[in-house]
Design goal:
Layout (H helix, E strand, L loop, with lengths): L1 E3 L7 H17 L7 H24 L4 H27 L5 H23 L1 H4 L1 E2 L4 E2 L19 E3 H5 L23
Antiparallel strand pairs: 1-4, 2-3
Helix pairs in contact: 1-2, 1-4, 2-3, 3-4
């Protein structure tokens, strides 16, 4: 996706994490009632927190350290979600295939978040020099325009994993299930 990013909703990693959070909610509806205030609540909170922290980081990109710090929180929440998925599988609440797809999908989200942290200077707005770092967008002085805060980035290039896993097809974890597995 090569284009102007107007809001956090335009970020590929946000879209993927939001879809994953929705899917986690659907899967967790099949968990037993006695897990409602423990596993179910925890996996829902951590999965939703990933996209929420990505959105927050996007709005903090004027301050590179804040941007990275908030993305670090998103990274931690994605890893926590993987742990809760593993617990759900260990207790037999998820089938092995769904578990593996979910773990792999969160691995992809984690790679994207780490790529954003690693190249944070390409994602952040630098008001001290009145530009978005290496993106060609400039502030217009005192007349602030929303377009000036929307960098033009090649997300696919910036988020591309450096490993051989980039050729793997996207897991179907986020596709709507035909039937819920318990």
């Amino acid at each position: 996706m090569n284009g102007r990013i107007r809001t956090h909703r335009d970020l590929i990693v946000y879209q993927k994490s939001f879809a994953a959070g929705e899917r986690i909610f659907e899967l967790s509806t099949t968990f037993p009632r006695e897990e409602m205030y423990s596993l179910t609540d925890q996996v829902r909170r951590s999965s939703r927190s990933v996209s929420a922290n990505i959105a927050e980081a996007w709005r903090k990109r004027r301050y590179e350290k804040h941007f990275c710090s908030t993305l670090n929180t998103a990274e931690a929440e994605a890893a926590e979600t993987q742990v809760w998925i593993e617990y759900a599988a260990a207790h037999g609440y998820l089938v092995a295939e769904t578990t593996q797809q979910a773990i792999e999908f969160y691995d992809e989200i984690l790679r994207m978040i780490v790529a954003m942290i690693y190249e944070s200077d390409k994602w952040c707005v630098d008001f001290k020099s009145n530009s978005v770092k290496e993106s060609g967008v400039k502030e217009q002085g005192v007349h602030y325009s929303i377009e000036d805060d929307c960098p033009l980035l090649d997300q696919e290039r910036l988020l591309a994993p450096s490993s051989s896993t980039s050729s793997l097809p996207a897991p179907s974890f986020c596709e709507k299930p035909e039937a819920n597995h318990a």
